[in-house]
Design a protein that fits this description.
The protein is mainly alpha-helical. The protein contains 7 helices and no strands. The termini are far apart.
C-alpha cells in the first residue's frame, strides 16, 4: 500500500500535478493538547494576566452558565467569546499557540529559536518559521510519522530524478473549530448570474 502511494505521488508530480496531504487535528494527538487541555491553558493564562482576576472571574462565570455536563467544545467556545469580549478577537490565539508549542521538545530551550520567547508571548511569522523548521525537535505521534515516511521517500525520489525542482513543505497550525478554513478572512460577495453591470 505504501509503495503504491509513493508511486501515485511521484507520477502525479511528474505529470505537473500538485499533491497536498491534508491531515486532521487528530493526527497530532497526544502531542498537541485537546480542547480540555486548551481550556486549562486559558485558565492559566488568565491567572497570570495581572488584571485583578477580571478575566478569571469572567471565564468562571461563563463556565457556570453552561450545563454542568457541557462538552469540551461548548466550554472552549464560551471561553473564546469571553476572550474576544474582554481582551481582543485574536487574544485566544496566544493560548492556542502555547498549546501547539507543547509538542516542541528542544533538548536545550536556551539554544532553540524560542530561547528569548516568553510564555504567552505571541509567535510572529519569522519566529514561527524558525520553530517550524526545527524538525527534529517536534514530538510526532506514530500516525504523523507513518504519513511522513512515504512522503520523505517520494521527496527523495523526486530530488534524485528532478534535482532542479524545489520541494516546499507547508505546515499549518491547528484551526480552532469555530473558525472557518482560511481564518477570519472576509468572503467576497458573489456577483449575481447574468451579464456584468454596466457603468
Amino acid at each position: 500500500m505504501e509503495l503504491r502511494l509513493i508511486d501515485e505521488v511521484v507520477s502525479a508530480i511528474r505529470h505537473g500535478g500538485t499533491v497536498t496531504l491534508i491531515l486532521g487535528a487528530g493526527m497530532t494527538m497526544p502531542a498537541v493538547p485537546g480542547l480540555g487541555e486548551l481550556v486549562e491553558l486559558a485558565d492559566r493564562y488568565a491567572a497570570g494576566l495581572g488584571d485583578d482576576g477580571e478575566l478569571t472571574q469572567s471565564l468562571r462565570q461563563a463556565r457556570e452558565a453552561l450545563d454542568p455536563h457541557a462538552l469540551p467544545i461548548e466550554v472552549y467556545l464560551a471561553y473564546r467569546r469571553v476572550f474576544t469580549a474582554r481582551r481582543s478577537p485574536g487574544e485566544f490565539d496566544v493560548v492556542a499557540q502555547q498549546a501547539v508549542l507543547a509538542g516542541y521538545r528542544a533538548p536545550d530551550l536556551s539554544l532553540s529559536p524560542l530561547a528569548t520567547h516568553g510564555i504567552w508571548q505571541r509567535v510572529d511569522l519569522r519566529l514561527g518559521e524558525r520553530v517550524e523548521n526545527s524538525l527534529d525537535w517536534w514530538e510526532l505521534p506514530a500516525g504523523v510519522r507513518a504519513v511522513g515516511r512515504p512522503a520523505r521517500r517520494a521527496a527523495r525520489g523526486l530530488r534524485q530524478q528532478h534535482p532542479h525542482h524545489q520541494l516546499r513543505p507547508a505546515l499549518r497550525g491547528r484551526r480552532p473549530p469555530d473558525r472557518p478554513a482560511g481564518g477570519e478572512r472576509p468572503r467576497r460577495p458573489r456577483r449575481p448570474p447574468g451579464p456584468p453591470p454596466r457603468g
